[in-house]
């Protein structure tokens, strides 16, 4: 009888240890999801498993459970998870699975490093620099080159002009 009790205790301990590991892993997934909810979108990194799998695991939801909630098979949910990791999931499928997990799918296009105005200033400056460089090359051939200060002044002036009168040529190279 004692042997049975020891075995029972060992099995319970093993089961508790598995549950503890499962809970620890779930907490890690939850941390990823919670961090995503509070950080700036610009700093957001896609988890290596993708958002669907990460959120699903954070919720302790199986593929079959999620499939049942959105009227899809386990296999279809798994396929969508793989598609997300490969950058091929549709917005519709992401939205459907997010709703099935009681979440909201968010889609955005944002400037990489700065704000949208800085993207435009950078574009105008690059375009102005190309124009001034081309003109400076021709002037140098005629021995009429500008000083570095004059070149920078022209770049600033043309940048301002381009930003003030953005037209259809603005994004053409």
Number of strands: 0
Strand content: under 5%
Morphology: elongated
Tally of distinct domains: 2
SSE pattern, N- to C-terminal: HHHHHHH
Low-pLDDT segments, ≥5 res: 1-12
Give the N-terminus to C-terminus distance in angstroms: 85 Å
- Helix content, binned percent: 55-70%
How is the main sheet built?
Answer: none
- Quaternary state of the chains: single chain
3D architecture notes:
- The protein has 173 residues and is mainly α.
- Helix 3 (63-69) packs across helix 4 (74-85).
- The model is unreliable at 1-12 (pLDDT under 50).
- The chain has 7 helices and no strands.
Question: Topology of this structure?
Answer:
Blueprint (H helix, E strand, L loop, with lengths): L1 H37 L12 H8 L4 H7 L4 H12 L5 H10 L15 H26 L6 H17 L9
Salient structural properties:
173 residues; mainly alpha; 2 domains; 7 helices; disordered N terminus
Produce a short descriptive summary.
The chain has 173 residues and is mostly helical. 68% of the residues lie in helices and 0% in strands. It folds into 2 domains: 2-100, no CATH class; 116-164, no CATH class.
């Amino acid at each position: 009888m004692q042997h049975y009790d020891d075995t029972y205790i060992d099995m319970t301990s093993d089961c508790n240890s598995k549950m503890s590991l499962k809970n620890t892993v779930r907490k890690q997934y939850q941390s990823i999801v919670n961090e995503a909810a509070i950080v700036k979108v610009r700093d957001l990194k896609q988890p290596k498993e993708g958002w669907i799998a990460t959120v699903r695991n954070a919720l302790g939801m199986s593929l079959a459970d999620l499939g049942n909630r959105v009227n899809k098979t386990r296999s279809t949910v798994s396929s969508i998870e793989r598609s997300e990791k490969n950058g091929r999931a549709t917005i519709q499928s992401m939205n459907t699975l997010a709703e099935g997990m009681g979440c909201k799918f968010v889609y955005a296009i944002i400037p990489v490093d700065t704000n949208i105005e800085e993207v435009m200033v950078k574009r105008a400056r690059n375009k102005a620099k190309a124009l001034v460089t081309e003109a400076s090359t021709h002037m140098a051939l005629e021995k009429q080159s500008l000083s570095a200060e004059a070149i920078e002044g022209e770049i600033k002036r043309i940048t301002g002009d381009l930003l003030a009168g953005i037209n259809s040529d603005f994004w053409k190279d």
